[in-house]
Design a protein that fits this description.
By secondary structure, the chain is of the alpha+beta class. The chain contains 6 helices and 14 strands. The strands form 3 sheets. Strands 8, 9, 10, 11, 12, 13 and 14 form a 7-stranded antiparallel beta sheet that branches. It has a 5-stranded antiparallel beta sheet with strand order 1-2-3-7-6. It starts with a strand and ends with a helix. The structure holds uridine-5'-diphosphate.
Length: about 230
């Protein structure tokens, strides 16, 4: 019997018969601004499961260790059981979102080199931006673990920039989560989808991601589908 053990804003995690394997189910629910804005995006669960599966397979083919095992239905994948490290790792190539709001960058400007940021994964505390020192002080990861995470995030960025460019998509920024598997190895977890990335059309800069939902830009489902079609064919 699959037992629900965790429910987040966009996914549910269930146990399976194998104690080392979890089932990750993608929901149609969408939230923004730390849960203040809530709605459903039709077919988002299926779309994001497909996009994430394709991307995890691509990254695995480039030797990135991930929790992904297998897509088993429209909106479900099997993943390795991990302990999630409570650090959201954001990688940015182009100024958008909080970089514009908080630091005054000009939206759409290419950054000279990628910026990596860390956010504490805590809904109660509103996911504050924090530094490596906070991460060590809170005991969330040690220096060598954070070095691995940072290097992996930058390598994933290189791979994804190329991957999306071939699909005529500009990878503006994205969020990653990592976990520790049963052997204490750090592996990529969570999802990679239009919920967690900013993806703009390469030619027109049309936003094809969750910002359409956040800012009521319309064509939300259509944009997610567009990404799915370009990524998964
Ligand atoms: N992001 C995410 N989950 C979060 C916060 C951010 O997936 O809880 C993603 C977001 O979709 C974007 C990137 O991380 O691709 C950077 O987000 P930003 O810091 O600009 O915050 P926002 O403008 O989304 O508040």
């Amino acid at each position: 019997m699959n037992k629900l053990i965790y429910e987040g804003k966009a996914k549910q995690i269930y146990t399976t018969d194998d104690p080392d394997i979890y089932l990750q189910k993608f929901k149609d629910d969408a939230t923004a601004f730390n849960g203040l804005k809530k709605d459903k995006i039709s077919h988002k669960g299926e779309i994001n499961n497909t996009i994430s599966s394709v991307i995890f397979e691509y990254l695995a083919s480039k030797n990135i260790p991930t929790h992904f095992l297998k897509k088993i239905s429209d909106d479900e994948m099997l993943v390795k059981k991990v302990d999630i490290i409570k650090v959201e790792v954001v990688c940015r190539n182009v100024a958008a979102g909080s970089l514009v709001k908080k630091f005054g960058f000009e939206e759409g400007k290419d950054l000279e080199k990628p910026i990596i940021e860390y956010y504490l994964k805590s809904d109660e505390l509103g996911d504050p931006l924090f530094t490596d020192e906070h991460i060590y002080a809170l005991g969330l990861a040690n220096k060598s673990e954070l070095d691995v995470i940072r290097k992996m995030a930058l390598f994933i960025n290189d791979l994804l920039l190329k991957f999306f460019k071939e699909k005529n998509i500009r990878l503006v920024d994205f969020k990653l989560e990592f976990g520790k598997d049963k052997n204490n190895n750090i592996i990529l977890a969570d999802e990679i989808s239009p919920d967690t990335c900013r993806l703009w059309d390469m030619e027109t800069n049309k936003k094809l991601d969750k910002d359409r939902f956040r800012f009521d830009l319309g064509e939300v489902e259509e944009s997610y589908l567009e990404i799915k079609n370009r990524v998964a064919g």
